Amino acid sequence: MKLNKLVRNSIRNLAQKPSFTVSRNFRSGGVEKESADCVVIGAGVVGIAVARELSLKFGRNVLVIESDSTFGTGSSSRNSQVIHGGIYYPPNSLKACFCVRGRRLLYDYCKEHGIPHKQTGKLIVATRYEEVPKLNYLLNRGNENGVEGLKMMEASEAMAMEPQLQCLRALWSSTSGIIDSHSLMLSQVGEAESHGTTFCYNNTVVGAHLEGNQIYLHISETESLKNWDHKSQQHPDILLLPKVVVNSAGLSSAALARCFSGINRGVIPPSFYARGCYFSLSNTRVPPFKHLIYPIPEVGGLGVHVTLDLDGQVKFGPDVEWLKPIDDVSSIQNKFDYTVCADRAKKFYPEIRKYYPSLKDDSLQPGYAGIRPKLSGPGEGSADFIIQGEESHGIPGLVNLFGIESPGLTSSMAIAEHVATKLSRF
Ligand SMILES: Cc1cc2nc3c(=O)[nH]c(=O)nc-3n(C[C@H](O)[C@H](O)[C@H](O)COP(=O)(O)OP(=O)(O)OC[C@H]3O[C@@H](n4cnc5c(N)ncnc54)[C@H](O)[C@@H]3O)c2cc1C
Questions:
Q1: Which top-rank group of organisms is this from (predicted)?
Q2: 236: Cβ below 6 Å to ligand 1?
């Protein structure tokens, strides 16, 4: 039996820390077992924030298991890097509450830790008369959600701010901004590591089972999973027995939960995936916009919008492209297609020209793509985040995070606060 050295070494390192208890190397059924305090599955921006919160604020020892070779390679590095105000989401939904709270925490964190960011502000624009009432609806919704700094603008005022913009009316959100999400994750990884978190890369959680109330997490080296398919069961390299598990596996968190035997499967939501592609602007020496520009939201996304990076460069996206279903094993192996098909630009030009009529032909270049972990399919309306504990699935100490799509980056620190508090009794 090949033993997963990385996991064992990580656990050994943890075991040398005074408050960490490990019951070493007892064997059963030929698979090595190790105890642990907290395990976070997935080192995306949310998993990292959860690990930081558990270790820094609650003094827990945390092992983060990440299937890739480093942190933040999933949706957390394939997004618009926008700090959202919190306008769009139904009042009292998790998205609304965590976005507003998370945004405040994030700005404070960026200021305290020197994370590159900019509170650019954002214009949501109506370009057709029938869209104007939708702006009023968004203004009311934002006010209900407690979003500060919202203001309705006449076209002249918005177009004076942004001379390349064409619109009939605009909703100004002064609290929206942009962030360097890699710097954020790097900073929080560092803080977590110095407070009792160990990151264990190249290892995949392939399933779990229960013995009494104890979760046994099945872990294999990612490298060894190449031939794993949905017809075969993966024999783990090691079993981890944690007190607390946070399933923050992003796109595959629901697929992974379906591989946990003993869980109430009826409460695990279905998985849908919607790719969003970005195109960058070439042939333009001076960026045409200084603020984020968003159209009225569409089904499944916020519409092909203008995002800016911290150097002022402009990109457009993401669109919404529903992907064919993939089986759970392929999802856990991250077999997602992130190709940006150059042909999609054809659909971008007319969308962008609604608010940026002077967009030149052939000026869009394929950029990158991200994939949204959707809990509802095409035409079903948007779903809220799901943060699921024992009360739903029946397993003490396990929290599943499902459907952490946008505004997950903005919400990450608020989600972490919530999850760590939820687990404080274990
Ligand atoms: C196109 C797009 C645009 C977006 N724009 C914004 C935005 O502007 N603002 C905003 O606030 N939010 C935005 N979001 C949402 C935001 O990016 C996500 O909500 C956030 O990154 C989710 O972080 P995460 O940690 O949950 O997931 P991820 O970043 O996907 O991390 C999950 C990690 O789990 C690992 N993993 C998976 N399965 C396993 C396993 N079995 N074992 C071990 N590790 C595993 C993966 O390798 C991955 O590293 C956008 C999302 C997309 C797709």
A1: Eukaryota
A2: no
